[in-house]
Specification:
CATH topology of the largest domain in chain B: Rossmann fold
CATH class of the largest domain in chain A: Alpha Beta
CATH superfamily of the largest domain in chain A: NAD(P)-binding Rossmann-like Domain
CATH architecture of the largest domain in chain A: 3-Layer(aba) Sandwich
CATH superfamily of the largest domain in chain B: NAD(P)-binding Rossmann-like Domain
Low-confidence stretches of chain A: none
Number of helices of chain A: 10
Number of domains of chain A: 2
Radius of gyration of chain A: 23 Å
Helix content of chain B: 25-40%
Strand order of the largest sheet of chain A: 8-7-6-9-10-11-12
Number of strands of chain B: 12
CATH topology of the largest domain in chain A: Rossmann fold
Order of helices and strands of chain B: EHEEHEHEHHEHEHEHEHEHEEH
Distance between the termini of chain A: 27 Å
Number of helices of chain B: 11
Strand order of the largest sheet of chain B: 8-7-6-9-10-11-12
Shape of chain B: elongated
Oligomer: heterodimer
Number of strands of chain A: 13
Largest sheet of chain B: 7 strands, parallel
CATH architecture of the largest domain in chain B: 3-Layer(aba) Sandwich
Structural class of chain B: alpha/beta
């Protein structure tokens, strides 16, 4: 008998278990990592896997995190010691793309602002004029999986879609009806600028005061990617000074935002609780996929979410 | 001869540019009175009954800057020789866009989530965002605007069902939807979108019994006319959780009075009759109405006249 430790106290133990039918293994929640019979340790982003894992569970062969980001796993060190490392690839791309388009459409049509306006006794004229989605220019920064899904939705809404991504060629973009442009053109011409770039040292504060100044005065920003892609203070200045017309953010420098988060006082801003990823299916998908990958690993097959193969095994 | 404009937001300079070549003067006035009044330009909040002829017996045309015409006594005025002209298709794109924005908003919960963050809540959400692709959109009515909505919603991957008494299944399918009986639509839809004009047949069509057929997790979006839906029954359904929420661009009384009950209903987005609006449609609504009135004054057939005068 072998055991798999699950460090996440909120892990839904009923999800995806059918994948393990016929495999002689026991899954149990644990807050301590110990036991000679432990072959795998699974965690959520909140739990950090220690680099000295083999001292605690000498027979461990696999660790996993039920998230796309895996900064909680010392993957290089562990794989050097012969341990496979798992994460979950792209389980909520569709949701993030739909949430992004929702926010873009709601900014252009002024939905949240008009709702507040009616509740304050207003009716006409509108404090901000709704604009057409059809023909509005949607500028996508970062044309990976999510950026492409956003492009498809924007095209379906008859928006004119342009994208900036150094690593994607013009033909790939054209095949999705998207015009490839440079960053300056995107910022200067888009009605809505939406961020879908990964957070890297070179993309930190991609949107700063200078880039906000390049945007149209009637343009909107959507950020459903990562908070530090935007210089938060510069966004506040751009909103308060009317450099841009508005923004919608799902991500923050600190999450959850503290009570004194300055964004609560900025005008023309829609705030979301890092919810773009969510649907009932997406909320369970990472667990389902990780359990399926665990089953593959235990059967000797290659898991889909492998971060790093242990050295010398392949 | 005078054309009286009873809507104080109407851009008079453009109305003058269109109508003065017909030999009339154009003025803003709340009163429609005088033998010299030949036409009236009005809006959904400005009712024109047949009694207007008591004070303005030589009236020939009434133009409204709206598609809806339930504020005009069309047939009675036609019997007394007056053309009623509306404007059509001037805001089809905008209403489709706004209705799509509201469908996205209710399914993804963005307005509710914005309020949640501002109250200091983060997780878990009281009402979970749902996928748009694959969700069932029930469209009630099959006119030009619903045709656009069906096409757009199916393009973003929604499963679109349509209920209409007069539509042909083939036409609905060509637009991207499936024609179904209204009861089936109500029972299946994640979002029910009201897209029909207000007539004697559609008034109160979505009554308590119809709302009761909706799913408990379904949303109602109304960018058409408030009177198509039984307002009190909708309020009860929202307050008791019989349906998940609503987005209303139209209310029984507009502008909304301070005691409008919908202002206190849970999970309800309210819009100030804004679905029709963009800078482009705004201009077209006034200009198209004025141009049709000018056609009548020149003795021509209006493009969007309704009942032909006797």
């Amino acid at each position: 008998m072998t055991r798999v430790l699950i460090l996440d106290p909120l892990w839904p133990m009923e999800v995806g278990m059918e994948a393990l039918d016929g495999i002689d293994v026991t899954l149990e929640k644990a807050d301590r990592i110990e036991g000679d019979d432990v072959v795998a340790v699974l965690a959520a982003p909140e739990q950090t896997i220690p680099a000295n894992l083999l001292e605690l569970v000498p027979n461990v062969r696999l660790v996993g995190t039920c998230s796309t980001g895996y900064d909680n796993i010392p993957a290089a060190e562990l794989s050097a010691q012969g341990i496979s490392c798992l994460h979950v690839k792209s389980y909520c791309d569709e949701e993030v793309a739909e949430h992004t388009i929702t926010l873009a459409a709601n900014l252009l049509r002024g939905v949240a602002q008009l709702d507040g306006f009616v509740r304050e006794g207003g009716w006409w004229p509108y404090p901000r004029e709704p604009r057409r989605l059809a023909g509005s220019r949607l500028g996508i920064i970062g044309f990976g999986r999510i950026g492409r899904l956003v492009a498809i939705q924007g095209d379906a809404l008859r928006m004119e879609v342009v994208a900036y991504d150094e690593f994607v060629d013009e033909a790939t973009m054209q095949s999705l009806g998207v015009q490839k442009v440079d960053l300056d053109t995107l910022l200067e011409t888009s009605d809505v600028v939406t961020l879908h770039a990964p957070l890297l040292p070179e993309t930190q504060h991609l949107m700063n005061a200078r880039r906000f100044a390049q945007m149209r005065g009637d343009a909107y920003l959507v950020n459903c990617a990562r908070g530090p892609l935007v210089d938060h203070a510069a966004l506040g200045d751009a909103l308060r000074m009317g450099v841009i017309a508005g923004a919608a953010i799902d991500v923050y420098p600190v999450e959850p935002p503290p009570a004194d988060e300055p964004a609560f006082g900025w005008p023309n801003l829609i705030l979301q609780p890092h919810s773009a990823w969510y649907s009932a299916e997406a909320s369970l998908a990472p667990y389902r996929r990780q359990i399926a990958d665990l089953a593959r690993f235990l059967r000797g097959e290659e898991p889909e979410g492998l971060i790093m193969q242990p050295e010398g095994t392949r | 001869m005078r054309v009286v404009v009873i809507d104080d937001t109407w851009p008079l300079d453009r109305a003058r540019a269109i109508l003065e070549p017909c030999g009339v003067t154009v003025e803003f006035n709340t009163e429609i009175a005088g033998d010299d009044v030949v036409a009236v330009l009005t809006y959904p909040g400005g009712k024109i009954g047949v009694d207007v002829l008591d004070a303005a017996p030589n009236l020939k045309a009434v133009g409204t800057c709206s598609t809806g015409f339930d504020h005009l006594a069309v047939d009675a005025l036609a019997q007394r020789g007056v053309w009623c002209c509306r404007v059509t298709h001037f805001c089809d794109i905008e209403v489709v866009d706004h209705t799509m924005a509201l469908i996205y908003a209710v399914l993804r919960g963005v307005v509710m989530l914005d309020g949640l963050v501002r109250e200091g809540t983060w997780w878990p959400y009281p009402r979970a965002p749902r996928p748009v692709r694959g969700s069932i959109l029930g469209v009630v009515g099959f006119g030009a605007i619903s045709h656009g909505l069906i096409t757009t919603a199916s393009a973003v991957g929604m499963d679109v069902r349509v209920a209409s008494e007069h539509a042909a299944a083939g036409d609905v399918a060509a637009a991207g939807g499936t024609l179904v009986p209204l009861d089936d639509l109500l029972g299946a839809a994640d979002v029910v979108a009201i897209m029909t004009s207000l007539t004697d047949r559609t008034r109160g069509m979505i009554d308590a019994a119809a709302i009761a057929k909706m799913r408990h997790d379904a949303y109602l979006v109304n960018t058409a006319r408030a009177a198509i839906v039984d307002h009190r029954a909708l309020g009860r359904a929202l307050e008791t959780g019989a349906i998940a929420g609503a987005a209303l661009d139209v209310l029984p009384v507009e502008p909304a009075p301070a005691d409008e009950p919908a202002l206190t209903w849970p999970n309800t987005i309210i819009q100030p009759h804004a679905a029709w609006y963009s800078a482009e449609s705004d201009r077209r609504s006034f200009d198209d109405a004025a141009e049709d009135v000018a056609r009548v004054l020149r003795g021509e057939e209006p493009l969007n006249g309704m009942t032909r005068p006797a």
